[in-house]
């Protein structure tokens, strides 16, 4: 037969007590030879051992006829004398009490789980269901042990746990439909039971602390259960369809976002390329403007330089090209001619009116000047000077730098 940890602990304590008693008994002396007077002490020792064993056995069995009793760990000892609850509360361990007068009972003050089974109830629609079990984790506070036992007795949990669970379950079922009890609000039953029990315990039995309530799924009629299963299947199919629709919508939205992102990217790239081309055009335009400005400035500077050169040349020529200088150049040009033609007429001649005018106006002075000028010319030109004195109105003709003497003579 299996023994509980409490019984094993009690047996261990009994063995320890027996060892202590044996250690206090003096060693047995060998009986004197031929004398039977030593039998008496041996009998007394045996009887004492038997009495102690019976005493410990009665104490460990929880009876009220023993002088020594034990309070297990996690409990406190509560006593009644003459049927009246005493205020004495003892801690775990061995304690003494008066047999037959004082009654002892260990009360658990640690966490304990009360299991309530087979709770029938009717829903708002009149369907009878039942809960197989409801587990209530609770604890009795040590400071309230006396007040709780004084008001509700040793079996206080029957009043505030077992009966209260039956009451609250029936109250909940009668206020809700089968759909709510079995499906919609089933996840709230645990908290509602805990709150309801704790609320009343706090008001009427403050020493009872409700830690938690666990309610199993109720048993419902098989035909209704099958309907719920079918409905759950349909709901599952609907949820699957909804989830598929959500997935399709998400995919479409994702594709839309991808397309928008791609379009935005292309637009940004196009904008960047356009800005780049505009910047290139603007840069080319500025470069051409700079080149044009440079060309205009260069042409203007060159034109100014040409104008300045022409002006300066004109000024120099005005100072340099005097009538005397021009006549000198004219005579030098005539002197450079290497051919003299004699004949009737030479066509296409050009006459220098200026030299002719100077000759007509100057007369002899002009001839003298011509003599001085042409004395360094070629000998062929001296023949022309001889005719100047006999020609009353001399005329000078030149064709391609050539002097025609025959025309002058006529």
TrEMBL record:
Main location: endoplasmic reticulum
Keyword Nucleotide-binding: no
TM spans (from-to): 38-56
Gene Ontology terms, MF aspect: cholesterol binding; ubiquitin protein ligase binding
A cellular component term, taken from the record's GO annotations: endoplasmic reticulum membrane
Membrane topology designation: Single-pass type II membrane protein
A Pfam family reported for this protein in Swiss-Prot or TrEMBL: Band_7
Subcellular location(s) of the protein: Endoplasmic reticulum membrane
UniProt cross-references to CDD domains, sorted A to Z: SPFH_like_u3
SMART domains, A to Z: PHB (SM00244)
GO biological process entries: SREBP signaling pathway
Domain named Band: residues: 66-232
Keyword terms, alphabetized: Endoplasmic reticulum, Glycoprotein, Lipoprotein, Membrane, Signal-anchor, Transmembrane, Transmembrane helix
Keyword flag Transmembrane helix: yes
Assigned protein family: Belongs to the band 7/mec-2 family.
PANTHER family to which the protein is assigned, alphabetical: ERLIN (PTHR15351:SF3), ERLIN (ER LIPID RAFT ASSOCIATED PROTEIN) HOMOLOG (PTHR15351)
This protein's name: Erlin-2-B-like protein
Organism classification: Eukaryota, Viridiplantae, Streptophyta, Embryophyta, Tracheophyta
